[in-house]
């Protein structure tokens, strides 16, 4: 199992060991000890599962007072998954990392608290499962515009299918007072 750090501290791409043979495949999708050693140590308290059609874009979502870390994987199809640092005062504020997650590559992306998360569907449909480190609190949710110019994500879909909630997302400037603050880790 490979835990690949990214240019955004805390965002980790997980490349699990996949054992294939004539019967199919086997892999561990989560192992607390191995994931903690790889930098993903927070306990998970909720699992979510979505199915979406081609061109669907979900995001960019976060919770503010009950921030969620998310361990995301695509169990059917292919998505482009993105994490964006929205912590005020962070040296990587507004920067993003994207990766292709699919049922073929088995990769997972860990999106830590303090980041917004979103994905778009590249295949005809996709099923996505993700583990969360905090329970979903609808009143605590923040939605940032998927096409926020200050972030500049080059989404691989020209005209995404969006929910009403995602169409009404805020810019970083509009959300400035609600954004979490960056806190340096103690030495």
What are the low-pLDDT stretches, counting only 5+ consecutive residues below 50?
A: none
pLDDT average, as an integer?
96
Q: Report the span from N to C terminus.
A: 28 Å
Largest sheet strand order: 1-2-10-7-12-5
Number of strands: 13
Biggest pleated sheet? 6 strands, antiparallel
Strand content: 35-45%
Model description:
With 187 residues, this protein is mainly beta. The chain contains two helices and 13 strands; from the N terminus they run ββββαβββββββββα. The chain has helices at 32-37, 164-167; strands at 2-5, 12-15, 19-21, 24-26, 46-53, 57-63, 70-76, 78-85, 96-102, 108-111, 115-121, 125-132, 141-143. A six-stranded antiparallel β-sheet has the order 1-2-10-7-12-5, with no helix packed on it. The protein is globular. The mean pLDDT is 96.
Features:
187 residues; mainly beta; six-stranded antiparallel β-sheet; five-stranded antiparallel β-sheet; 13 strands; 5% helix; globular
Summarize the structure.
Helices cover 5% and strands 39% of the residues. The protein has helices at 32-37, 164-167; strands spanning 2-5, 12-15, 19-21, 24-26, 46-53, 57-63, 70-76, 78-85, 96-102, 108-111, 115-121, 125-132, 141-143. The strands form three sheets. The protein has a six-stranded antiparallel β-sheet, with no helix packed on it. A five-stranded antiparallel β-sheet has the order 9-8-11-6-13, with no helix packed on it. Strands 3-4 form a two-stranded antiparallel ribbon.
């Amino acid at each position: 199992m490979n835990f690949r750090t990214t240019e955004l501290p805390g965002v980790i791409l997980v490349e699990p060991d996949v054992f294939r043979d004539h019967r199919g495949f086997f892999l561990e999708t989560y192992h607390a000890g191995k994931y903690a050693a790889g930098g993903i140590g927070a306990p998970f308290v909720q699992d979510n599962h979505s199915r979406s059609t081609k061109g669907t874009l979900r995001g960019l979502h976060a919770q503010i007072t009950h921030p969620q870390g998310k361990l995301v994987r695509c169990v059917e199809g292919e998505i482009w998954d993105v994490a964006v640092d929205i912590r005020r005062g962070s040296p990587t504020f507004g920067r993003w990392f994207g990766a292709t997650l699919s049922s073929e590559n088995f990769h997972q992306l860990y999106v830590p608290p303090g980041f917004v998360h979103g994905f778009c569907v590249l295949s005809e449909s996709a099923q996505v499962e993700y583990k969360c480190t905090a329970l979903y609190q609808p009143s605590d949710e923040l939605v940032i515009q998927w096409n926020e110019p200050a972030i500049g994500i080059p989404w691989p879909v020209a005209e995404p299918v969006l929910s009403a909630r995602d169409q009404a997302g805020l810019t970083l400037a509009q959300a400035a007072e609600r954004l979490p603050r960056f806190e340096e880790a103690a030495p």
